[in-house]
Description:
The chain has helices spanning 36-42, 47-56, 80-88, 104-108, 118-141, 149-170, 193-207, 222-234, 236-240, 245-258, 298-304, 329-332, 397-409, 417-430, 443-454, 460-466, 500-505; strands at residues 95-97, 174-175, 190-191, 281-285, 325-327, 392-396. It is mostly helical. The longest helix is centred in the first third of the chain and has 24 residues, at 118-141.
Amino acid sequence: xxxxxxxxxxxxxxxxxxxxxxxxxxxxxxxxxxxxxxxxxxxxxxxxxxxxxxxxxxxxxxxxxxxxxxxxxxxxxxxxxxxxxxxxxxxxxxxxxxxxxxxxxxxxxxxxxxxxxxxxxxxxxxxxxxxxxxxxxxxxxxxxxxxxxxxxxxxxxxxxxxxxxxxxxxxxxxxxxxxxxxxxxxxxxxxxxxxxxxxxxxxxxxxxxxxxxxxxxxxxxxxxxxxxxxxxxxxxxxxxxxxxxxxxxxxxxxxxxxxxxxxxxxxxxxxxxxxxxxxxxxxxxxxxxxxxxxxxxxxxxxxxxxxxxxxxxxxxxxxxxxxxxxxxxxxxxxxxxxxxxxxxxxxxxxxxxxxxxxxxxxxxxxxxxxxxxxxxxxxxxxxxxxxxxxxxxxxxxxxxxxxxxxxxxxxxxxxxxxxxxxxxxxxxxxxxxxxxxxxxxxxxxxxxxxxxxxxxxxxxxxxxxxxxxxxxxxxxxxxxxxxxxxxxxxxxxxxxxxxxxxxxxxxxxxxxxxx
Length: 515
């Protein structure tokens, strides 16, 4: 049996957190059998279970197993992590899905999406489920005492920032809900991208020194908060029009120098069932095949990339293959000839029986499935399970190394090309790839290396936007704009449309341009 690992998911015999969607009053307190305040007054240690549920909102669909949902959306399709993959990876160059589902098909082809697309609604609703739960808990924590209260409050504020980060990145505006307007019955005003950015920045700066230095696997600590802040600054020019690469470098350096993380000696370990022992993962979204089952965590990545008809599923720790996801040549061509490449990362594609070209994205054998994520243990033999127990590495050290290099190449002060080159070559050397020289270290090289290292980890769309390669026609990939060889897409596609249900629920919201 696989280890019962990681952040323990507590079972609490009261209904603590109820479903809230953007179509409902987002400030209404959840209905409970016993209020949070009463519960924590009676048992301050119950905060552990409450926090576990809050952390789990980014990976699980609901409180009662994979068939339950905290929001009024499909429990299989709507979990937060599944939304991140759908919106960040399938809309970009490296990964495509073949199922042809209405909504998902438009993401895969980066074409013809609109405010009725259910996958935009799912992510929007997840943000506005998590944020009010954070606000509710922060209000309660203001009047009760719990163990490590200051650190706990900081963790809740971090999770709220993490949810808002995806609102900033994907939709560019929304409603700013905090403890200050919690319980209001009137629709809140629309908050601009700048206003949301300013709020998240101020919150992360405020909790930098109150988050614990170490906090146990799967929980927010100083490095986790700094990593999110560094990512916010890295994308600041996209989000606000003002570059903040100096600030991005400052906080990236803090993560690297003070976080206590080190590169995992083996790339594949970080995407295997026992990756909770990795020295590199800064912040994971936790999965367990028994106590935190979900169709929307890494189960979606593992099973979705396998086919029981052509693959031995047990080799990947799986019992099901959904035959859905395949990489395109925009990803695996980054390694050159896969047959001769020495790069370990080039081995993580299934090529047998599959064509290099994706002439039909709905045909399973077109393109190479990625076997980067697997449910099998890296260091021990385990039994296959229906659901994945592989954690999702939302933040990891190699990303920080590449962020450092990018900031330096973009001219940020406080770093050096020598150190940037060392970090990039450390990453490449770990995967037995040929090291590079300082002359190779350009922005074009960095976006390609981010693809080689981080593809399928929820960063790609944001990266391409930051590098000016997502919209327009300067960079084409298979099926961009629903064309075999790719075609230009409008600049308005750099933001997703505000879901129609959100617009109907709050007359203060306006639609993004172009929709």
